[in-house]
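Shipment paperwork, digital attachment
Item: protein structure file
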Amino acid sequence: MREEQGKLPSFTQETSPPRRGQSSRRLRIVLTVVLSLVAFQYLPLSSVLSSTSGSVQVPLRAPEWLAKCELLNAKPGPPPDFNTRTQSDRFALGTKPTLITNATIWTGGVDGLEVLKGDILLDRGIIKRVGVIDRHTLAGYIDLVRIDAKGQWVSPGIVDLHSHIGADSLPELNGSDDTNSYKGPVLPWLRVLDGLNTRDEAYKLSISGGITTALVLPGSANAIGGQGALIKLRPTADRSPTGMLLESPYERNGSVYDPRAYFRYRQMKHACGENPDGVYSMTRMDTAWSFRQAYEHARKIKESQDDFCSKATRGDWGGLGDFPEDLQWEALVDVLRGRVKVQTHCYETVDLDDLVRITNEFKFPIAAFHHAHETYLVPGTLKSAYGHPPAVALFATQARYKREAFRGSEFAPRILAENDLQVVMKSDHPVLNSRFLVYEAQQAHYYGLPHNLALASVTSTPAKVMGMEHRIGYVKEGYDADLVLWDSHPLALGATPQQVWIDGIAQIDTPYLLSKPAAFQKRPETPNFDKEKDETLKYDGLPPLEPKPSRSRTVVFTNVKTVYRRDEQRIRETFTAVSDDVLSAGVVVVHDGQVQCVGSATSACASSVLPSEDVEHIDLEGGSITPGLVSAGSALGLSEIDQEESTQDGYVADALSEGVPSLAGGPGALIRAADGLIFGTRDALLAYRSGVTAGIVAPQTRGFLAGLNTAFSTGASHRLEDGALLQEAGAVHVAIHRVGSPSVSTQIAALRRLLLGETTGDVKVWFDKIKAGEAPLVIGAASADIIASIVALKAEAEAKLKTSLKFTIVGGAEAHILAKELGAANVGVILAPARPFPNSWEERRILPGPPLSEKSAVATLLDHNVTVGLGIASEGWDARNACFDVAWAALDANGEISKTDALALASVNLEKLLGIKTDNLEGDLVATSGGDLLEFSKVVGVISPRRGVVDII
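Attachment content:
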């Protein structure tokens, strides 16, 4: 194996250049050392050869080759005394020691069940002491930074096993995308390190979410995409990619060969299924063969090396030739030698089985299957992999965005853990913002993953999977000083770091802290999903999701803690139990989908149901009745599988570049989303079962003019069903973005003409309503500059039309910059996503919220009287999480948003901003068990006045 050149000799690192004589003398010393090593290894060879019959010419490079032979079977890992080190190899000079006192410490030890109360001493980049620290130990520290944790939680730094941070950089630009190479399906010789961008805007954001270490992998365009880079997110003094490496697996010994150095694990990306198949126009059979062909080539090199070394070590040099190696393939050879952790992007059973068979054929282990949406259905297949069962790195709820992810389940982490398989939650950043990786662990716990395994899934387990459990993933003496001090239990929704340390260095200069209720310091109670988990397995990942109406016309909900009702475009609290006493709990009587009365257990409402009536009773166990939430911003209702065109309504023609077909109405046409609705999608039904009872969707466009939105019931089975279509059309949607062509100014000019010029057909009908202030104009925009032009255009149009117009901005990543102006102009904003993300150049000036800024975007806009809604920017799978988004927004506002105002963010506010008008009937109400809709509760029923039923979930 070819040794790579590492650091320069020490004499090149002097602060001032040495004199010529000194340089020559030092060079002679280094050469003497090298020649001595050569002679030392050559002499034994000579003696061996002289004792054999005949004369054999010993190659000049024999010592080098024998040294390589000696290391062929060396295993990676730290030196035996690694955790007795007194200083980290990443220690930054000048870093002051830190003492964190009065902490509740989740150590990650003893299978993740160990929790300590005490102190943590950080010094020289490592954890020096944990627990009770005596005075004598502290007496030696003069300049000690003291942090009082006040009893709050400290965890190991969050470890992301699957990220593209620094490779797929933010903001995403053509010049900074180094995620995939398209030079062939098998490229094991590539290294992400060679394309790692140290200027990625995401580093500081991810650190603020507790991320301290990330495995940056190549993308999944290739069957074998290359080698990953395991980095700390803290930039070092040299500001280089190499300086960010946790441990360099490439430069082992400096410039002088040292056989005593220890190997470090390398990480390699494999991928199977739709991605490599699609990029290279292959089938699964082609991809499987590309793996086997590559590994066969590596196997031959490995065997030739083993054969060479067998002969060389016994002095049989005759006709042996040079040591067999190939720089392009050495990494794959090292996979076969167990020195590389293979991280494999693989979803479906067929692909999982393919890779497992290949591991057994070529005898190499897989560290983890990533994404791996069907692993929970075939744990036995994973257990038959060579060496050991791979870990499984998952999303919590992201699924169904392509066919191979269609059977993804929120219960997968729990099921895998029950089958004794290691579970890792990951980000795939920027697919999911790694700043909120702990949110994936929170959701996994909510759906049944035990709390210790949920916390381990983003700390100690990924550390083990990467072969780095000797230094990260735990709060233990001798480990890297990578810690997070949280404002609440790490598994509590909205848990936010108060401070993050990497290598003992505090990463947030001035953290803005949130005040959380005392209950948030406890591990959250989660619902029982046993029945749903069992059905998921019974139906091979696709359990029936359709709602089932109550067997009785009258349903009585008991043990109700709170009731919230709609009051036109407001939400109000209509009942609250005065205590936890059963007699003060609420009773809600529903008949034919209509709420008949609400009262306490001793009220007339409770006794209004006659014993002879056919009644179904549902105990909410301290739960709540709440207006159903609304989803907006995604293609929910117009798409089943995002990456399968045949499952979608499709995209409308761009009126600015290609024109609407004349057969569809030409320039005067407005496409109606209602005409393309797709009911009964799994994403819609899962949203319904999560309390999101309505969706508002506009025609999908990649251009300027989208068309008319529509509102629909997420629980309906088809359009003709009673209550399925809530409102056929409510508003016109357009989008203004920096796409290069046509220009932003052209798009604004087109909008000005629609508002102030002559139009025809449906465009005229609807823009006449907009001009009269009767219907909102919904404009997709992110940039503050574009939003400012829209506000100016609104003022111009209002002056000429002499009326007030209704404008709504959707997206709004930079809307906070114009909060005052938007409030004064009466322009509403739907933030999509609910938590900002600088994905593109026009979204880069986000307001991140605590701990990086005092205010969140939601709170800032509300402070200036802007009507705010929370939407979705990703695929429809995220609609089910609207309740979490709303609760999180309230928590980030630090008590400034009431529960009723929070509920409005994803219900009545969205309807108002998107032109959906409620009728005389009350909208759907959601019954939750164990808490209200904004807590870790469980939806057990939906009360639907429009359809006259109560659906039992």
